[in-house]
Amino acid sequence: MTTRSPSPDRAPGGKTFDRLLLLIGLVAVVTAFLAGMAAVRAGDDTPSTTVPGTGTTVPQADEPQTIKYTLNEFSIVGPTEIAPGPTILEVVNEGAVAHNLKLGNAQTPDLNNGESYMLDVGNLEPGTYEITCEIPGHAGAGMTTTLVVKEGANPDSEGSTDHSGHGGIAGLTWQDVEENMRKSVVSFPAETQGTGAQPMEPNILPDGTKEFRFVVEEIDWEVEPGKIVKGYAYNGQIPGPTVKVDVGDRVKIVVENRLDMITSWHPHGLRRHPIEADGVGFITQKTPIRPGETWEVEFIVPEQSVAMYHGHDMGLHQVPNGLAGAFIVGDVPIPDGWDVVSEEIMMLNDGGNIGFTLNGKSFPATTPYVLKQGQAMMVHYMNEGLMNHPMHLHNNRQLVIAKDGFPLESPYYVDTLDVAPGERYTVLVLAELPGTWVWHCHIFSHVEKPDGTMFGMLTALIVEE
Ligand SMILES: [Cu+2]
């Protein structure tokens, strides 16, 4: 027990031949002459004009049209329909982190905040083109869009960027933005298929060993209402089921790989686990767990820990797509004077197909937490993503009592706690004031889309009187 910790009572309110050559030459000369005539005529008839508010130029026949695209976390905003012809994309990164833009074989370099690039995409024939940011994870997080090229298209159609004149953004009026926001908020908490991080019961073997069996599979996962993505799961859950055992327990871990790729099982942050259990292919085990194989390991858990198990080989691909779960050993000591009614996992993720999520779900499909006034709950923040997330709870305090499972000698109060990839923080959340209190990552692009829709790493603490 930690004795010097503050008690709730004492403290105040918390991404090839000559003839043939001659013939070709003649054809080329005639073609160039005819094209030149056509250009002269087109030039006379079709002056260049700029469509107000879009930065889009409607060209003379020979002159490429310039189409503007804006990059942000995590969106690509620009016209959704343009006319065929030679085209240059003016790509501007308004985001906080580096982004790029790819259309067909044309791709910009990585652009930092405020940088722009004129990308010549050549002569666009009628058709549908995918536009993406190629930085790992960014397309999955939303940086993808479709451009339809067709005769007679007006580039001033839906989706064009316009930061002026409408009181809204992304070509929307403020009323559209408000409506998008309202629709997302009023549907909270929205029901979706599948719940992650469910408590896992072990098989008790004859010698008392607690056996945990994991099946690694690709599944369809509903991240937000109607949005179903391909994810990787332990036992059909994202995050995987929550393991909780006692200090001194003998455990057996069995991992069956039903993927068409290698995987492994690493107990990140489990303290003093034997090296055979460390789950790194060609280093602590002969090979990764190959498709169709089953790997197992048995060991004693010697110390209280707040750990996460996850794929380690092909981790870049698998973990951001859901292959992670909590592994808790024993109890984090609770300071005196606290009424702690539950122990919760809040797993943070931000990459892959899953995107910005809390426990595998994006708002409004996140689960709210409900407490009575004066109660407290223990929450283990676990970051299995690729980015930091400053987690902010409105108006109710959080007492940080452990870092990466190590109990703090001097717990401290926060309202915002930055959780880096791989970190775990254990906090006691005190329900001080009645009402529905927003609880979210404070990087706005992780919770709000450019069109006003709330999504991602947002939930609520509901304090009942
Ligand atoms: Cu965040």
Task: Please provide a written account of the structure.
By secondary structure, the chain is mainly β. It contains three helices and 31 strands. Strands 22-21-24-29-26-27 form a six-stranded mixed beta sheet, with no helix packed on it. The chain has a five-stranded mixed beta sheet with strand order 5-11-10-7-8, with no helix packed on it. Strands 12, 13, 14, 16 and 18 form a five-stranded mixed beta sheet that branches. Bound molecules: copper (II) ion.
* Termini Cα gap: 30 Å
Radius of gyration: 28 Å
Share of residues in strands: 35-45%
CATH class of the largest domain: Mainly Beta
The neighbouring-strand order within the major sheet is 22-21-24-29-26-27
> What structural category do the secondary elements indicate?
mainly beta
CATH third-level topology of the largest domain: Immunoglobulin-like
CATH architecture annotation of the largest domain: Sandwich
Shape descriptor = globular
CATH-wise, what's the superfamily of the largest domain? Cupredoxins -  blue copper proteins
Helical residues, percent: under 10%
Please give the largest β-sheet.
6 strands, mixed
Our count of helices gives 3
Could you tell me which ligands this complex binds, including any ions or cofactors? Answer: copper (II) ion
Note poorly predicted spans.
Answer: 1-18, 20-55, 156-166
Number of strands: 31
Overall average residue pLDDT: 85
Number of domains: 2
